[in-house]
Amino acid sequence: MKVASVKHSSVDGLGLMLGRPAYTADLMAKNSLIVKVLRSPHAFAKIVSIDTSNAQQMTGVECILTAKDFKRFAYTRAGQGYPEPSPHDKFVFDEYVRYVGDEVCAVACVDEATALEALKAIKVEYQVLEPVLDFEAAINHSSIIHPEPEIHEMFPIGFEPKKNIAASYQMHVGDVEKTLTSSDVVVDEVFYTHAQAHSMMEPHSVNTRLDYMNRLVMYSSTQTPFHVRRILSQVLTFPLSKIRVIKPRVGGGFGGKQAIHGEIICSAVTLITKKPATLTYTRKEVFESSYSRHPMRLSIKLGATKEGVLKAIDCHILSDTGAYGEHALTVFMVAGSKVLPLYNKVDSVRFHGEVVYTNHTPAGAFRGYGAIQGNFALESAIDILCKKLDVDPIEFRMKNMIKEGETSPIFSIMGEGTEGTAMNMDTCKLPFCVQKGKELIDWTKTYPNKSVSQDIKEGVGMAIAMQGSGIPYIDMGAATIKLNDDGFFNLLVGATEIGQGSDTVLSQIAAEALETDLSNVIVYSSDSDLTPFDPGAYASSTTYVSGNAVYLAALSMKKRLITEAALALRCEEELIRYDGIGFTNTNTNEQITLKQLSNRLFYNHDQKQLMITESYVGHKSPPPFMAGFVRVQVDTSTGEVRVVDYVSVVDCGTTINPMLARGQVEGAIIQGIGMTLYEEATYSSQGRLHQNDFLSYHIPTRKELPHLTTVFADSYEESGPYGAKSVGEIGIDTPPAAIANAIYNACGIRLTTLPFTPEKVLQAIHSLKEKLR
Amino acid sequence: MKINEYLRVKTVEEAYHQMIQDPIDSYLIAGGAWTKLTIKEVQTLIDLQDVVKNHIEIKGHMVHLGAMTSLEQIAHSTLLDHHALVILKRAASIVMAPGVRNLATIGGSVMGKYAFSDIIPALLALHAILVFHKRGNVWLQDFLQEPKKDPDILLEVLLPIVPGVGYFHAMKKTALDFSIISVAIVKTNQRNTMVIGSRPGIANRCLQAEQLLNEADIIDEPFLEEVANKACSEVDFGTNVRASGEYRKQIAKVYVLRGLKEVYGL
After folding, report:
1. Which of A623, B59, B62, B233 is the most exposed place for a label (fewest CB within 10 A)?
2. B155 and B169: one domain?
3. How far is B251 from chain A (nearest CA, A)?
4. A282 lies in the same domain as A307
C-alpha cells in the first residue's frame, strides 16, 4: 500500500492552524440575530406563566419564542437511525422544566447585550416541584418527571414514564443463578460511574439563514447533519427539501454533538423573522444544558471454578439518563454487548436493568458509551475474582478471553436497541495485545507492586477491551467520486469529520484505490445538499462503514476510467494497464495519461462527466480489541495517584493513517484517565451542577500526562477497507479498570466508585488500615 | 466584567484621586487575569501599567518586586535564586499556565486576598512587606488580618534577604486547579515560619508551632511530627467542593512534616 497505512498529516490541519475561517461561528451571516435561551433555575418546576411584555418592548428585540410558537410535538434530540430507539419525550419548550438549565423560552436580538438584557426582562412564575436527584430512588418516586400524555416510544424499549423508567431490558443465556450456585468461587460487587463531560473545545454552535430560493440553510457543529435535517423537518413541519444542513469544521464532539442542540430554536427564529440568526452555547450551557455521560450503578456477579475457569457473568445496571432519554437504551445495552463477549466461554450470562429519569442534566452519547462503564465493572471484578482464586490476572484472561475465530452468543442477541448480528471474530489479536503489553510495561518486574519511598507505592494493572465498527444493517455510508478536468478527483462523503481526521483517512482510502496521490483527491464532507447520505460520526463507524463506501466508489471509478481509456486507445478493456498516472494499451504500447484522458472527456471526444456513487452497509461489526496496561504511583499518606506509564496495544486492523490512529488511541486514553482520576460531576442539594466551567471541572492537562506507549497489532480485517476496523472509541475503555486494578496492586485498596479522587483513595487506605489492625 | 469607563493613568496620584472621588465604583486593574471572568459592572476601571513598576531588583538586603511584576517574570527570575526566596518562584510557577501567569501580577495576587492563592502563603513565610502609596510600609501579615481600609495603591512588595532554606508545596488535583492545600515553610538562623494556605480560607501562619520549633534544642523526627500536629491543630480547615476539611487537615499534616524534614535535612 502506498497511501493507505501511511502517516499523512491531516488534510485540513495546516489551514486550521493558520486560523482560516472554518468553524460554524466563523461562517455566520452578516447581521445575524443573536439567539439566547432563558434557562430554568429549578431542577423541577411547572411554568405557571411567562410574561414577555417588557422584553417585547425593548429596542433591538426581534423575536421571543415560547412554547406557544411551536406545534406540540414529542421528539427525541438523539441523532440515531430512524425510528430511534430513544423515547420521544422532548418538546422544544414545555410547560415543565426538568433540570437546572432546561429551556424555558428564547430571545433573538440585534446584539448580545440586548439579548442578555431581554432575558433579564422576562418574568417567569414557577411552581417548584420536588425533584428526583438520587437515581437509585427514581423508580416509583412520588414525582413523575414525564407526566405528559404525548410522549411515546417508537418500538418497545421498556418505556414506563409513570415509573420514571425511560427504558429497560433483559437477556440471558443459560441459567445464571444455577451456574453461580455451582461455582467454586463467586464475586459479588457493585460499581458506580459518574457523569463525565465531553469537554470538546468548540462549544455547540449553529447559524441559519434563508437563501435566495427561500430555503433554510444552516451551519451546525454537529456529528449528525442528516439526522439534524430529518428531526428539524419533523419538529418544525418544514419540508425536508427546503432544508440544507452544512457541517463545517467541528472542534471536537466525543458524542456530545450527536444530538440536537440549538438547531431548532435558531431555525425557528430565522423562519419567523426571515433574518439570519446564530446561537452559540456558553461554556456554562455546554456543561449544564447539553449532555453528559450516563452515570450508572453496575452490580456484577462472577462465578468460576477453582481451576480458574469463568463460568457465569450476571450484570444488573441502573442507568441515570437525566431529564430526557437521549440514547437511554442504547448506551445501557452497549454496557453489555461490547463488554460481555470478552469472556465468551461462560456457561451462562445475564444482563438486565433499567434506565431511569432524574432531574439532572440529560445524559447522551459519549465516546465509548456504555462500554467504558461496563468495562470498569467487569474488568475490576475479574481482578477481584483472580485475587480470590489466587491466580495471575493475565493468565486468567489468556485462558478465558475471546480469541480469533470464536464467537459469543451475545452478538446475535444484543444490538443497539434491537437484536444483534451473529458474527465470528475474524480478527482478534488479544493474545498478542496482552503479551506485548505485559512486556512493554515490564509487568514481571513490578507486579504486584514495589516501594518507591516510604509513602509512595508503585503498582501495575491491566484490562482488556473491545468495541464495534458501526451498527450492522443500520449504519450506512455513501461516497461519490467525481473526475475533474486535469485528472483530479472530488471525494464527496456524508461522513462527518469532527476533528478526528476522517476526511484525511477517507481521502487516503480513495487515493490508494485510485492509485493516485493524496493531493489528487479533494475531499468535501457533510453537506446535506451536496454529499451523499451518512448517519454521522458515531458508533466507531466512519473508517469501517464510510471507508468501505469510499473504497467501493474508488474501485468503480477506476473501472470506469479503464473503460474510457479503452475507448480512447481503441482496444479491449483487458488490454489496458493503469499505473495511477496513465493508461497503456499493452498491445500497441500506445499511452494516454489520466490528465489527457480527463481533458479529452470534458473537451474533445465523447464528452461526459464521470461521477460515481457507491454505498455500504455493514453486515457485521468487527470489534477492535486492546489491552491497556498502566503503572501508577500512590502516595499512601495523601491519596494522590499519579499515572506514570500507560501502554496500549491495539488491534484495529490496518491503521489507514498510523499517526491519526495513534492520536485517537492516546486522546481516548487521556480522556479515560480524566474520567478515572480528575473529572467529577457533583450536584447541590437543589440539583445544580457544581462543575459548570473549566475552573471547577478538571480535564487532565499536559502536566498530568503519563508516558504513553501505543502499539498496533499486525492485523488485517478482510471485511474492512484495506483491512481496517475502527479506532475512535476503543482507547477510552480500559483506563478506569486498569487504574483501579493498579491501585489495588499498589496498596491493597479496591475502589469501586469513580472518580478516584485523592480524598477517596486516602479514605480507603485508612479503612484498610483499620481493618488490618 | 462590564466596564463603562477605562482610565489609563499617567501618575499614581491621578489613580489615587479617582479612587478617593468615587470609592464605590472605581476599580484598579492589576494584571487583569480575573477581569473577563468577573461578573460585575464597573463605572471606572483604572489601569496602573504606566505608573507602577513591573520588575524585580535587589537593593541592599531587600528584594523589591514592583506590584505589576507578572507571576511568569517571578517564576523565571534569577534574582530569587537565593536562600528561601526560591519558594516564591516555585509558588508562582505553579499558578495555572503561562497564559494566566503572564497576566497575573504579584500586586493583584496580594490585593485580591484570594483564599486559594499560592502566592500569599509563600510571601507570608518570607515576611513580605507591602509598600503603599499613602500608608507606606505594612507587614503582609497585618494587611491580611486588618479590616477593609480606605483606598490605597500597592506599589511594591519587599522581601528581606535572609540566609536560610524554604519549602513550598501546593497540592492540586490537576495543574490548572486551585490548591486543595498549600504549605510554605522558611527556616532561617533566627526563626522559623510556617504557613498553611487554601484551608480553604486565606493563608494562616502557625504561630504556636513556629514557637515550638524556635525554642527546640534537639530536632528529630518525632519532634517534627509533634510540630506538624501542632501546626494543623492551630489553624482551621473547611470544606468546599474541592475537598473536605477533614481531608485537608490530614494532608496538611503530611506536607508540613515533609517540609520540616526537608528544611532540617532529616
Report:
1. B59
2. no
3. 5
4. no
